[in-house]
Amino acid sequence: MLDPKGIYTANERLLDDPRVHNLPLVIALSSPNDAGSTAGQMGHFLLQNLKSIPAVSFDVDQLHNYRERPPRVFYNKDHYEDLRLPTLKMHLVEDALDQPFFLFSGAEPDLQWRRFRAAVMHIVERIRPSLVLFVSAFPMPVPHTRAFPVTAHGSRKDLMEGISMWHPKADLRASMGSVLELEMIERGIGTVGFAVNIPQYISEADLPQGLLTALEHVSIAAHLSLPTEEVREASRSVHEQINAQVQANPEVARMVTSLEESYDANYQSAAASTMTLAQRDADKVPSRDQIGVFFEQYLDEHPYDSRAQRPPRSQDPGDSPAV
């Protein structure tokens, strides 16, 4: 294996500063399997809305398969413009209350996984994160009209208990996130992952609802104040658009109704052991009936604003700004 240090450049002074050690590290890597563009959106959104400093930059040309995942470019009438090349970087970020944390985001590597894993672990050993949080998403047969479920995983059982509605067993294709999580657990590093369950029939779209769900879970688990108001407004607008499309197609409407019935039945059976981190932190354990009332009140109290504009799907979540 080639020297892992040969695929990245680092702000050595920053990484060696004791003041940035023992901070949370959020890993959100985009990939073709990133349902709802959840992880990809998270990296872009946080870097656009919070103060940040580059800490590590990976040589994407050694890691990315451009034939399989070509970059995007815009054709404007008679010329090309706005080329968006993939990036893979770690930033030191400050939340809304100036609390620092590390964010590792960009395009998941296609190549040299062992070398990349060794490089990441070398960086992790230097910054010694207090907690590593993984953000991902996958398609599931759930309705868009209900709160998106989350599958929690990792070594920090105190941050996972009660979140997942279902506890499946499956033989899956590995992601770089799963590879890194396994390595960190073996080395005794605390980890927690939040995999958002995206409605299968809209998983190809950029969904702010998935991003909002991920932001809320990361905020609570890492004790960070992450901005959500803009995403919340976009979620309401997109929800309204989806509802309109569903109502216009009776066959799709019947499918959604069937998913709702299945979701509600499963949720009721799991409600006694399922609650959010916020509810557990507040030491409030709702009953099954209370949870049902909560959902009804939430939908009644959060009307969707049709004037709200959904952020445009402009580029691969791992892309860099235009060059």
Q: What can be said about this structure in brief?
A:
The protein is of the alpha/beta class. Helices cover 36% and strands 21% of the residues. The strands form two sheets. It has an eight-stranded mixed β-sheet with strand order 1-3-6-7-2-8-10-9, with helices on both faces.
Which band does the percent of strand residues land in? 15-25%
Mean pLDDT across all residues, rounded? Answer: 87
Instruction: Quickly give the structural class.
Output: alpha/beta
Instruction: Encode the helix/strand succession as letters.
Output: EHEHEEEEEHEEHEHHHHH
Helix content range of the residues, please? Answer: 25-40%
Shape: globular
Q: How many individual helices?
A: 9
Q: Could you list the spans in which at least 5 consecutive residues all have pLDDT below 50?
A: 280-288, 290-295, 302-317
Across the major sheet, the strand order is 1-3-6-7-2-8-10-9
C-alpha Rg (nearest Å): 20 Å
Tell how many strands the DSSP assignment holds: 10
Distance between the termini: 32 Å
Major sheet description: 8 strands, mixed
